[in-house]
Fold this protein.
Amino acid sequence: MKVSIVIPVYNKAEYISNCLESLFQQDFDDFEIVAVDDGSTDDSGKICDEKALQYSRIRVIHTENGGVTAARRKGVDEAKG
C-alpha cells in the first residue's frame, strides 16, 4: 500500500457516505482509508463502520472528541501507507 487517506469525522452523517464512496471511484487503488470518528453524536461513526464492513480498505478509529487536529494526528499515527 502506498497511500493512506486520513479523514477526521465529526457529525457529518449527511456527507461521509458520499465522501467514502467517491474515493473508491478513483483510478488509483493502492490506498487505505483511515476514518477517525472524533466522538460524533450523530450516525457518522455508524456509517463509517458500515462502510468498513463493505470495503476492507477502510479502517475506523473511534475516539473521544478532541478536535480536528487530534483526530488527524491519531489517523496519521494509525496509517500504514
User: Anything to note?
Assistant: The chain has a mean pLDDT of 96. The two ends are 6 Å apart (CA to CA). The longest strand covers residues 31-38.
